[in-house]
Amino acid sequence: MVNVRHVTKRQHRISAAPSGSRRISQVDAASREHRPAVGVADPLGSHARLAARFGRTGLAPTIATKGLTIVELADGFGAAAYVRRGRWAVTPGDVVAPDGLADSALSEYLDVVSQRGLWPVFLAISDPQPFRRRAFAMSKIREEAVIDLTTFDVTDPRRAALRQVVERERAAGLTVRHHDQTHHKQHADDVTDFWDVVDRNGTALASCTWRPYLGSSARVLDDVLGGREGPKSYLLATCLEQYRAAGLIQASLGRAPLERGLLADWAYPSRSLLSYQRQFAPCWERRWLAVPAAWQRPFARAAIRGANESLAMV
Prior knowledge:
Blueprint: E1 4-7, H1 27-31, H2 43-54, E2 69-73, E3 78-85, E4 88-92, H3 102-115, E5 119-125, H4 129-132, E6 137-148, H5 160-171, E7 175-179, E8 193-198, E9 204-213, E10 218-226, H6 229-245, E11 250-257, E12 283-291, H7 297-310
Parallel strand pairs: 1-7, 4-5, 10-11
Antiparallel strand pairs: 2-3, 3-4, 5-12, 6-11, 6-12, 7-8, 8-9, 9-10
Helix pairs in contact: 5-6
């Protein structure tokens, strides 16, 4: 039996989308949501909740990262964010908006960027078609490691190495703890999940954070810290098992570059799990780079590298 303890100051449950609610596809669904108010005391928290509700991939929660310039879209029901490098607006991931507003929100974002005298470059988008319709040049740049939680099981033969690690660390008496969000102060939102794993003496061996997306029915690995690989793998496997038990449908373990050395550390949160992804046997989903014209790719890539240097946590 997996040792899991919930450490909370109040009753805390992992929130999951209602059964069968895999996508937010109607505009009227957005009208029932509270809009993230401009100028509130917790703007990053508001955008984190927006990403949790309408984000379609594991990159969506990036809009709540400090240091990004947020652009409010669709009358408060959507948003996008960028890092400015020279005349480039380096934009990680898709525009976040309800499905019925996503295309118009993208047009609105492009207008805003143009009005600010910038060129847009989109990194790791999930659907190239809206950009192709706008004559953007597309190239395959990354793959996102996605886990189907409805079928996740460490006894799967593809995860034999992971199963051995889990059994060894469990036998050693490690305990995984799920903390209240107030325990983790790095993020300015109230939706980030914080977990850690301790030994029999209560000494913390590793910790990780996850952010919600896809109507809060999915989680993306935000960060993982610790020394030995064994406790970290055990921690992450236990998190996935607990999310599956809570009714969540998907988890993202981050992105890996298709071309080694090409922007290898930029796409959030690539630092989290590159050495573990194959151990978890994920499904690899293609992600794209979009620039206004093919001849601009070298300049856009230089801007992306510069954005990486200016945002250490992305």
